[in-house]
């Protein structure tokens, strides 16, 4: 029986990849450890090694193929003593079965509760008023949108530079800075040692001296080591100096739960930074918002914490093809219009809220979904206007419940929208525990659209 | 502890003959800065150093007084005893071209960079006319115009920030250098070494200055530092270190000459350890029970940087009357600053909400 070589999952969030190059051809003898192919994942180009010995009987997926699903058969190896040409027939069934395979392949690949977060991704149903009618839309991943934003701003302003771990030669731990080193050189795309506290300080100092640094944290979990500079050095400088000394810096990187990486790598820092006066905090959902807001952040004269989401990097959205697409900081977006209940969310939670809105629509409840986009300053006006329309509100947040953005929205509704409330504001958040590793526990800890549906039924008394 | 201790001798007797500067023994045949020589100042330069040091001394005494009267609040860290460090080092820099950054004991560094005593004192009293419009206080003062970047309250933060200032000088190719001051206490913070690593890796133009005044609040260097010869702290990063008698302004200036030449030549960072002493407590609220009155008095008697230079001035032919006239002028400058700081109005209440952000959102 021929051995099936399957598309490997080479990162926790990889769902598909590009088979960039075969390094063996049919008829080659291979042994364990031989490099068979180069596979480009959502993060990097990886070498795929043989585990078994035998002869390459058939290459099923040609090199250069994009979108090869994890688990799909890419080649067949005839084991010793087996006739390589005789295995030809067997594989035919496999690719056919693969058409609906991802679900089938799932049990083999490690499951993650984060699937419930990303399944509904890439829905944006209401046109952004900031985009002129008739603008051409280009399908772009969040990752590419972020990269494009940085590249455009670096072309426009010599004082903009990027620094962080693996941002240059490695092309970014999550490939967000891919290509920047080639275009801008090592003066402006700078690999740092693993030294978050130090380089957050170096970046802040450079900003005080007049440069516009983009400091990438490999994830915001590691930025805990640097939070002193983000808050004490960057956020407070303008105020403490009586407006004399500025710190125009962007701290960016992935935030929130990734897939099966456990408690220390899975945390939403939105509420932490949003608590600090002097900071701008942005947490976009779509690729268009990621691009337009990152460009705004780089131009911003104030320090910005720009919270991305690893699970969203590979998702594609329509991005308007405009020479200079910059969005306003501090403005929420109505992602879906509705009249019966308002769902407020941001970042990856927006996808969950939109999925819940679809489910609710099937039951005759029209939910309005607000994507906050900026967490500080918070767009109270849009939130309260929607509340005045629907009289009911549920906040959806991929993060802990206590002292959260959801708590803040609830307080705003109480203080400024009390007369509009026909029911208490409810919070749908992650469970109040460190994020567990086990797939079933992880799933139970994270928000899901069914929880949102249940909360909406409570506030609408259905 | 009087003057600079001999290196490699932890318990050097106080009377040990001080060398003006000592550099770390070369670990290899790498290029090292030359042994600094005591600066040969002209009579006019000596007079300038003297009046700057005296201005700092009198200013700080006045600040102490105003604190006692309740006109200055919060933390207030005085620079008395350490004057030769800021004056000796910064006299080798170019105001407006070279950047300076320090911790919370910052009044002396500002005065040594030519910043108006009035706006500093008015900041101490929390007035609208203060350099930070009354919103910064003693520990948070800045003058971007002078390239004086603070004034930072978190111990050690200024070292990373200062490395960022040096990054800017190199990025912009403006020929400037950064000088980042920190104390013997901050020398044990982790981010200092993160910064050393990056500064040498990227050959940034920065002079790291450890002002070793022997006590981190109440903890003496020997109780806190496994390597108490702090000028060696850069060795594992290949940053050359020089130990300097920080009570002798001409020795300090001599070391500054060497350091500035090294850094401006693109050879990367350099580390100076200035052995100095603060006469007052860590802050105004420090009872200073961790050292004896005799210890402080001995330094004042034997090693005071101002008295030291005064003797040299007299030897150079400056008369007692000339020095008295100078002293009188300085007292007037300080009194004017104090009067200004007392009379200037507090910030408008509306100032509470300004300067949080630069932009409108």
TrEMBL record, chain A:
A molecular function GO annotation: pyruvate dehydrogenase (acetyl-transferring) activity
Domain spans labelled Lipoyl-binding: 2-78
Subunit record text: Heterodimer of an alpha and a beta chain.
Biological source species: Edaphosphingomonas laterariae
Region (Disordered) location: 89-117
Swiss-Prot/TrEMBL catalytic activity: N(6)-[(R)-lipoyl]-L-lysyl-[protein] + pyruvate + H(+) = N(6)-[(R)-S(8)-acetyldihydrolipoyl]-L-lysyl-[protein] + CO2
Keyword tags: Lipoyl, Oxidoreductase, Pyruvate, Thiamine pyrophosphate
Listed cofactors: (R)-lipoate; thiamine diphosphate
Any one Gene Ontology BP term: pyruvate decarboxylation to acetyl-CoA
Top-level taxon of origin: Bacteria
Name recorded for this polypeptide: Pyruvate dehydrogenase E1 component subunit beta
Enzyme Commission numbers on file: 1.2.4.1
PROSITE patterns on file: BIOTINYL_LIPOYL (PS50968), LIPOYL (PS00189)
Record function comment: The pyruvate dehydrogenase complex catalyzes the overall conversion of pyruvate to acetyl-CoA and CO(2). It contains multiple copies of three enzymatic components: pyruvate dehydrogenase (E1), dihydrolipoamide acetyltransferase (E2) and lipoamide dehydrogenase (E3).
SUPFAM superfamilies associated with the record: Single hybrid motif, Thiamin diphosphate-binding fold (THDP-binding), TK C-terminal domain-like
Record's compositionally biased regions (Low complexity): 89-105
Automatic annotation (TrEMBL), chain B:
Coiled coil: 309-343
Biased composition (Low complexity): 1-28
Cofactor: thiamine diphosphate
GO molecular function: pyruvate dehydrogenase (acetyl-transferring) activity
GO terms, biological process: pyruvate decarboxylation to acetyl-CoA
Database matches in InterPro entries: DH_E1, PDH_E1_Alpha_Subunit, Pyrv_DH_E1_asu_subgrp-y, THDP-binding
Keywords (A to Z) from UniProt: Coiled coil, Oxidoreductase, Pyruvate, Thiamine pyrophosphate
E.C. designation(s): 1.2.4.1
Catalytic reaction list: N(6)-[(R)-lipoyl]-L-lysyl-[protein] + pyruvate + H(+) = N(6)-[(R)-S(8)-acetyldihydrolipoyl]-L-lysyl-[protein] + CO2
Domain Dehydrogenase E1 component: 52-349
Gene3D superfamilies in UniProt: 3.40.50.970
Compositional bias (Basic and acidic residues): 29-38
Region (Disordered): 1-38
Record has Oxidoreductase as a keyword: yes
Pfam annotation, one family: E1_dh
Known function: The pyruvate dehydrogenase complex catalyzes the overall conversion of pyruvate to acetyl-CoA and CO(2). It contains multiple copies of three enzymatic components: pyruvate dehydrogenase (E1), dihydrolipoamide acetyltransferase (E2) and lipoamide dehydrogenase (E3).
Subunit structure: Heterodimer of an alpha and a beta chain.
Protein name in UniProt: Pyruvate dehydrogenase E1 component subunit alpha
Species this chain originates from: Edaphosphingomonas laterariae
